[in-house]
Structure of Acyl-CoA thioesterase II:
Amino acid sequence: MTYSPPTLADVVATLEVERVDEHHFLATQLDNPAHHIVGGHIAGQALMAASLTAPGRTPHSVHVYYIRAGDARAPVDIHVDVARDGGALSTRQITARQNGQILLEALASFSEPIESVDYHQPMPGVVDPESLPPIQEQLADYADELGGHWVRPQPFDLRYVDAPPRLAIELPELPPRMRMWWRPNGSVSADPVLGSCLLTYLSGTTMVEVALTRRRQTPLSAFNALIDHALWFHRPVDLSDWVLSDQFSPSGVAGRGLSTSTMYNRSGQLVCIATQELYFGRT
């Protein structure tokens, strides 16, 4: 059977986890040729499940540890513990299991709207996304490589300001940053919870690139596994327009690589800061 990459509709539909009871949820996975569960996807599902137990409040942070790999051909059980409900903040502990084994542990925090001082670091000056080609055009010369992997359809329209991984690894000097405009390949609900879950999904699937590029590798040329993943949601993301992801890898050591991404709405508002650490195994 020919593999078809997930569409935006597939991602959104599977982020909408099935509620079994008040604190128990069932999450359908997106299968792939390796049958590996995608880290950013299961983290987004965990955040969605936790959000359903904190009505009226939106996520402002989530901290995830990926314990072991799972099988994307089978669903995942997600259990949410109510750690605390305070006057303005709520905390949830999330555990994802498959066949009785823990795949993921996470803590998520939710907040009511609060009027306060509002400031943020300004968005870096970059070219507009309309002046950049889609990734499929940018890598058209590599269309026959790896069964068309570089030009495959994706749930998001990605437009790289700096060289994308396939090009960057061949440059004499590696770029210090990997800045990228992105937006969903289709319309999505303006629900802020769904927006945060999509940010979690996307950061989990693109931030790996900047750490691998520092090793002159790509996601398909080297073993890599997500160890942990943290996001802070500062302002609601506007997914009807482009989002800038300013990514870099500040450290690589002991078989691990750290990546960070600062994301801005098209209007220049800082919407999210994400970090993740990858494990590359022994040399």
